[in-house]
Amino acid sequence: MILSATVIPLRAGPLRLCENPPSPSKRRMKPEELLTHANTTVIFLVAVAVEGGLFVVALVLGAVLDVNPTARLAGAHWSSVAWGAAAGLPPALAVMLALHRRSEFAWRLLEGAREPIKGLLQLAPWQLAVLAMVSGLTEEALFRGVLQIATTDALSAWPNHPSADVCGIGVGALLFGFAHPVSRAYVVVGALFGVWMGVLLLLDGNLLVPMVAHAAYDLMLMLYLKRTW
């Protein structure tokens, strides 16, 4: 979920950022506004570097917890890609429907961080696709490939602990939600999305499924916002 935030005017006409925004040259820009006015190549490279850095975190944390974040990719098949792409549709459509209806939920979901998303939406579709793929790969490697599996393995070592899988999904999802603190509503949605990704890993057993689902979700949502703005 690389999307940070946007503003959806609920009671005004079409989607727009603001009425007659002041010229950036006439005021000092806030740090988050620098993304909006940066070169798209810079925005793209910074975003990919930040998301890519999560894979380094996954490798380091995996070494500490004795969990290989890529171990669950073994035996991946094209059916995993198809299953993952299909699994990314329901959450993406739900959020897009809320945005389309300009619901109070959408406002609460994406309040508070207009500038980062404005910068991301300047990117070309192919750049958004690359960013979505990197996000799906690295975030799922960390939260599902390391945190969920490490929790499940630790609890499975206890005798008569049938809820190890449930706890693993819960820990990964909760930390995933808190890693997206755009708003309180977004944290909740992020956690629910994390639960869905964790369930996908549990059902299929291959990490490629939630990776593809995550990437598909991000890409569909970003392309929707890019088109409707």
What does this 3D model show about the protein?
With 229 residues, the chain is mainly alpha-helical. It is globular, with a radius of gyration of 19 Å. The chain is built from 9 helices and no strands. It has one domain. The longest helix is centred in the middle third of the chain and has 32 residues, at 125-156. The chain has helices at 34-37, 40-65, 78-100, 104-110, 114-120, 125-156, 164-178, 184-204, 208-228. Helix 2 packs parallel to helix 6 (125-156), helix 6 (125-156) packs across helix 7 (164-178) and helix 6 (125-156) packs across helix 8 (184-204).
Give the overall silhouette.
globular
What's the β-strand tally? 0
Strand percentage, roughly? under 5%
* Unreliable stretches covering 5 or more consecutive residues: 3-19
Nearest-integer average pLDDT:
83
Approximate helicity band: 55-70%
Q: How many domains is the backbone divided into? A: 1
Largest sheet: none
Oligomer: single chain
Give the N-to-C terminal Cα separation. 19 Å
How would you concisely characterize the structure shown here?
With 229 residues, the chain is an all-alpha fold. It contains nine helices and no strands.
Secondary structure topology:
Blueprint: H1 34-37, H2 40-65, H3 78-100, H4 104-110, H5 114-120, H6 125-156, H7 164-178, H8 184-204, H9 208-228
Helix pairs in contact: 2-6, 3-9, 4-8, 6-7, 6-8, 6-9, 7-8, 8-9
